Amino acid sequence: MQELKILASSRLIPPAVVQRFEAKHGIRIRFEYFESAEALASYLESRPSEDLALVRGHYIDDLKDKGQLAKLDHNLLPNLKNMDPTYIDSLPDPGCHYSVPYLVGNIGLIYRNDVLGRTQPNLNQLFEPNTVTVPFSIMNQYRDAIGIALKYLGYSYNSTTIPQIEDAVDLLKSLGDRPSFIGFLSNDATLRFLKEGITYVAMSYNNEAAKVIEEDPRMAFSTVEGGRVAWSYAHIISYKSEHLPEVHVWLNYLMEPEVAAEVSVWNLATSPNLAAREFLPESVKNNPVLYPEGGVWEGAEIPGSVGDAGKTYVEYWHRL
């Protein structure tokens, strides 16, 4: 049986989806997992010997520019017609020449509505002294944390200007002087602290927020006016893959509407597959955190490459 090796930073593909594909097409799927999206991207840059990878969208340009990606053959991907043009025609890969979107979303603020009530938090409350007296946290992801600070300062999330990045990092450093700032937390810690009442407001990905809101009605989620940021996961093909026909069979299978709907439900995350919407249960399709009117990218800046400035982001992040 032919085997495809896929790199991923977390278990985002339902086992049942994989099992049905293997049975239907006689192609085995083998995963290798990494502790973070950053570790996966670094590995790809140094040893791109696998067939595919499921990566954060903002890495696509860098990997393409370094010659690590194979171009997609759209003739072998008829199910691209099922995808929402919003996510096909936008950054980070307009036209999907090197990637196929898998999940999409945005970054916002999750909060305890039993404490804040109808008052939705915003970036001013997080970054301006004496405006938030309840405990809050920022996500422990360097691009997203620095990016949100950049947005608050009126800059681009994708800024490559060193003084702007320095301003954003200085702003994040200043949070250490705020008694209400609990720290930079992982997703798991963020949600646990909210449930336990250690914090009441936190930066969060919309899909992570949707999961905790489903379990705990005290929680609510708000996108950030003037500071909206998108996120995405996409499949890319290594230029060293020796199984391009089989790789395209896999990618085309994932874009079948029923499969894409199952992925959305299993992850409780937004699918970029428009045709999948009719196969979603009402509880997911009508979830405004996942499928708001206008889409999760409406008014949001889409993360992309920051080129050589990426080293500055990492260096400054480690100084925090």
Task: Write a concise keyword list for the protein shown above.
9-stranded mixed sheet; 320 residues; alpha/beta; globular
Structural features, described:
The structure is a single chain. The protein has helices at residues 15-25, 37-46, 60-65, 85-88, 113-116, 123-127, 142-152, 162-174, 187-196, 206-215, 244-254, 257-267, 282-285, 309-319, and strands at residues 2-8, 27-33, 52-56, 99-112, 136-139, 181-185, 201-205, 219-223, 229-237. The chain has 320 residues and is an alpha/beta fold. Strands 1, 2, 3, 4, 5, 6, 7, 8 and 9 form a 9-stranded mixed beta sheet that branches. The termini are far apart.
Summarize the structure.
With 320 residues, this protein is an alpha/beta fold. 38% of the residues lie in helices and 19% in strands.
